[in-house]
């Protein structure tokens, strides 16, 4: 069974956080997140002010965790990790079309994360 984890891109301050806890209550939904620069600090983010991204359960060639929204490089191709139609896919875009590779995660350790769509 894979580990369920999330990270959140704060759209107001333009910073990526790892989600420590989610609280869903009527009129008071919040995410409690780690400050990645100062790990002893937590922040509260309103879900309306962030983009939530899920961990795929896989790691790249360097052992880095792969999240939705990561820029991925494999076999000379660069694309984005996305979740579509019930599975993780690799989206490669050229000028005329978006190409989906649903099976690229079977060998996730053959590629590497080179960034994410926000930074």
Structure description:
This protein is mostly beta strands and 119 residues long. The protein has two domains: 6-52; 55-116, Roll (SH3 type barrels). It has strands at residues 6-10, 15-23, 30-34, 42-45, 50-59, 65-67, 70-74, 77-84, 87-93, 98-101, 112-116. The protein starts with 5 loop residues before the first strand and ends with a strand. The model has no long low-confidence stretch (mean pLDDT 77).
Domain count, please report it: 2
Please tell me how large the radius of gyration is: 15 Å
Give the helix tally. 0
In quaternary terms, these chains amount to single chain
Overall mean pLDDT: 77
Q: Which descriptor suits the 3D outline?
A: elongated
What is the CATH fold-level name of the largest domain? Answer: SH3 type barrels
The separation of the N and C termini measures 30 Å
Secondary-structure element pattern, one letter each: EEEEEEEEEEE
Strand order of the largest sheet: 4-3-2-1-5-6
The top level CATH class name of the largest domain: Mainly Beta
